[in-house]
Amino acid sequence: MPRRYFKRNRRPPFKFQVPEWLRTARDVVSQFTIPLIVFQIIRTILFPSGIDFMIILILVILHFCFSYEVL
């Protein structure tokens, strides 16, 4: 019988190693990103300031990270 020099990695993918409470929190936050982005865009149109653009940028980055499961 031949020896196996390359053992197969039997660990599940990374998303299954995250604790359940963290996955739940990530799902809850991802549901609120679109309404927060819309609210922030309306607020920026009415009362523009530099910090509003930074908040929109952070929210958009968070939304894309949750959409593509980076976080």
UniProtKB/TrEMBL annotation:
Keyword match Transmembrane: yes
Keywords per UniProt: Membrane, Transmembrane, Transmembrane helix
Transmembrane residue ranges: 45-66
Keyword Membrane: yes
Protein name stated in the entry: YggT family protein
Organism: Fictibacillus fluitans
